[in-house]
Amino acid sequence: MKRLVVKVGSHVLSEQNRLARDRITNLVSLLHQLQDKYEVMLVSSGAVAAGYSKLKLDKSKLENRQAIAAVGQPYLMSVYQKKLASYGLLSAQILLTADDFDSRKRTSFAKNAINTLLKNKVIPIINENDTTATQELVFGDNDQLSAHVAYYFDADMLVILSDIDGYYDSDPRQNDGAKLRTKVSEILDEDLEIPCDPNHAFATGGIATKLKAAKFLLDLDREMFMTSGFDLSIVKSFLLEGKQTGGTHFCKECM
Ligand code: ADP
Question: What is the pTM of this model?
Answer without folding.
Answer: 0.93
